[in-house]
Structure formats: structure tokens, C-alpha cells
Amino acid sequence: MTETKELGAARLLRIQEAAAEVGLTPRSVRYYEEFGLLRPAARSEGDYRLYDETDVERLRFIKGLRDDAGFSLAEIAQLLEDEAARERLHAAYHATTDPTERQRILRERLASYERQIETLRRKIGRLQTMVDETEARRAHTVAKIADFGSGEQL
């Protein structure tokens, strides 16, 4: 039995509903929670996990990074932590007028961006290596076809 709950104005979904909405299995959602990538918005009286729209969007983001971009869960965790740190730093920056503190916060934010860029560049490098290897295998296959005298250009 799946039932959507309302808590105030927020629509809360049980794990099966949230997983289905994103195209995941409930086990995957539980695993992301165990890995620290996600925390349910609430728990029901029966201790069922309940997810709000922010959680569902986070699941979509995680799924996209994993499935579409091929990131590992460790890389996803680092990207999510960097994003959370930038949000905390944004709030801290606006909470102070001290120029020295603001400069420290901006340097910390810059380091976060640099970590994220390095993670993305490593991913691009691995993908480029895969493209290069596939192109080399393709060229090898084209050469073998040519050896048969077909003369066909691929």
C-alpha cells in the first residue's frame, strides 16, 4: 500500500513512490541513504521514510550523475558536499561585514570550485581515453576489412 502524506503544505512520498517517480528501486534509494547521499525529509508514525520534492530532485540529480555522466558514488558524494559547503559559505558571507572574514570565505568557496573542476576534468579525461581506445579499435577493424580487398571506406 502506498500512500502520499501531506505535512503542512509539503507533499511527502513513501520510498516506493519517490523511487518510482525518479526511475529507481527502493533499494537504490536506501543505499544512497546508507552512503550518506540522501536523508529523508521525515519519518511516518510507522517509521516509514518520507521524501519531499527537494529529496526527489536530489535523487534525480544523483541518478543523472550516476547514469548519464558515469560518476561513482564517492564522486557524487564529493560534488554534493561541495555544493552544501558553498551554500553554507554563501550564508556565512552575508552574515558578516568583516572584510577579512569575507575574503577567507571567498577563498574557501574558490577551493570548492577548484575541487569540483578537478573532479570534472578527471571524468573528461577518462571519457576521452575511452573515445580514443574505441576509435583505435574501429581503425583496426577498418584496416582488417581493407585487407579483404573490399575497398569499402568506413
Q: How would you portray this structure in words?
A:
14% of the residues are buried. The protein is an alpha+beta fold. The model has no long low-confidence stretch (mean pLDDT 89). The chain has five helices and four strands. It folds into two domains: 1-68, Multidrug-efflux Transporter Regulator, Chain: A, Domain 2 (Orthogonal Bundle), CATH 1.10.1660; 71-154, no CATH class. 69% of the residues lie in helices and 8% in strands. It is flat and about 70 Å long. It has helices spanning 15-22, 26-35, 53-68, 73-95, 99-147; strands at 5-7, 10-14, 42-43, 49-51.
Overall pLDDT metric? 89
Q: Strand fraction band?
A: 5-15%
Number of contiguous helices:
5
Largest sheet, strands/sense/barrel: 4 strands, antiparallel
Poorly predicted segments: none
Number of strands: 4
Q: Helix share of residues?
A: 55-70%
Overall number of structural domains? 2
Q: Describe the global form.
A: flat
Q: Determine Rg (CA atoms, Å).
A: 23 Å
Multimerization status: single chain
- Separation of termini? 55 Å
Structural class: alpha+beta
Order of helices and strands: EEHHEEHHH
Query: How are the strands ordered across the major sheet?
Result: 1-2-4-3
Short description:
With 154 residues, the protein is an alpha+beta fold. The protein is 69% helix and 8% strand. The chain folds into two domains: 1-68, Multidrug-efflux Transporter Regulator, Chain: A, Domain 2 (Orthogonal Bundle), CATH 1.10.1660; 71-154, no CATH class.
